[in-house]
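Appendix B. One record, verbatim.
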Amino acid sequence: MMEHIKVTRYLVAITLFIVPAAAKAVGYECNFTRYCVEERSCQPSGLTLHIRPRAEASAPDQWEMETGGAATARTIPVRQIRDPLGDSHSYVSGMEYDTIHLVSIFKRGITRYSMHNSVEGIQSQNFHGTCKVAP
């Protein structure tokens, strides 16, 4: 009986150690090769995004998106929305300086990033690229 209690305690300890690590959310590194504004023609893009859970998050759907390079980096709070079928997930911001951001990651990392804004008249800007799981 005493041996059974020791084994049970050992298994509980291992479970408490492993489960939080496995439940930890991962981030994404995204690279975009094409940029389009409204119905005008597209052009090459070198935009990168980093999407990760917010450090101070109080709920699992609270993430952040970092845009630009080191000199122009901006961090935008976004909310994660998961597809109930598990085929994709999206990240959407609230209105920020007349702009709403939406990133959708589909199977095999195919990704679309859209910004809808009214800074220079109402327009949408779309980026085409891919995201991969970041360490």
